[in-house]
Here is the input.
Amino acid sequence: MSRSSYDSARELYAALGVDTETALATLARTPISLHCWQGDDVGGFERAGATLDGGGIQATGNYPGKARTIAELRSDLDAALALIPGRHRLNLHAIYGDFGGKKVDRNAIGVEHFQSWIDWAKQRGLGLDFNPTCFSHPLANDGFTLSHRDAAVRQFWIEHAIACRRIGAAMGQALGTPTVTNVWIPDGHKDLPADRKGPRERLEQSLDAVFKEQIDERVHRDAVECKLFGIGSESYVVGSHEFYLGYAVTRKKMLCLDMGHFHPTESVADKISSVLQFVPGLLLHVSRGVRWDSDHVVLFDDVTKALFEELVRGGFLPRTAIGLDYFDASINRVAAWVIGTRNAQKCLLAALLEPSARLRDLEAAGDHTARLALLEELKTLPLGAIWEEHCRRANVPGDRAWLPTVQRYEREVLALRR
Ligand code: RNT
Ligand code: ZN
Here is the structure.
């Protein structure tokens, strides 16, 4: 009887002191929060045919078959989830509520508009995460929301964010797993501002108003997302990294690091061990910027691997919520979810298979030559065989086996959406 490729791979890793079973167990219990907005290019369901409007972010491409209704988005999510090993989470934006054809303004949304999502998630054993939507709205058209100079506009967005935290808490309560509600706002200037201070002072006050209500950590956590620049906010973003780092440290909030939100040569991986020394938790928006914050599909690449290596090496997984944030409208959107999520998982698996004890010993002994040699040779170990075993145990198709299912779904479902 021939030995499986898993068995021989397992032995290779064992020789380096790595237990593949432990790695697989950790991988299986680490959820990834799938972003609902990959399914419809950040349109949402406030009105039929809504499209992403402003906010300094952009989905490009017009691949046929985008979800136009809640039912279509759920069907597409089911199709994607069936091809991703493990139990995960769904990350909703406020514009994805079940508004039943009625116009409900952002400051009037309530848990009733998300009850059908809660039921849907419960049936599938998924957790939910949440986001206020501070773009695609007349009161966000001039590029400012929580930091707006007009108190009435600020108040509107404060009410929206408060409503979102309550909805998030209700989701976490109903599903028995804390919802992370992440505040991201587009506020900023295209060209050089005369006043960088005023909007930041107003943002601090608005956020304090948003977070005034204490919510039980067991059902809900707050995160704030920093950014360097966006389309139309190239010169100044109110909620910069320094702003939100300071805010998260002083208010004990989770900090959200989006991989597309920094200068292209900055390493987000390197920030993790610094930030987690001072903030209670981290939310990651795993993404890929190509020359700008372009939100391309996540790859199994060095940058993403480095990110997960840091989470594993630092023992940070329990304090980190892993979410995806990209929106590619130029390829099959279901496949985009599957490819990006599986790649994030593979990066995590690669990190879990690292012989960390041995590497640390070499480093402690000052043997940086052997450290480099080992780090390089790890790259050609049979990670793929361990990954295939993970897919097999989770009852989902392995690599090169899932795409036909998406192609059939495209022919039978997506292609009929015209
Ligand atoms: C925008 C932020 C933010 C959004 C989502 C849709 O630059 O990354 O997280 O992508 O909220
Ligand atoms: Zn993001």
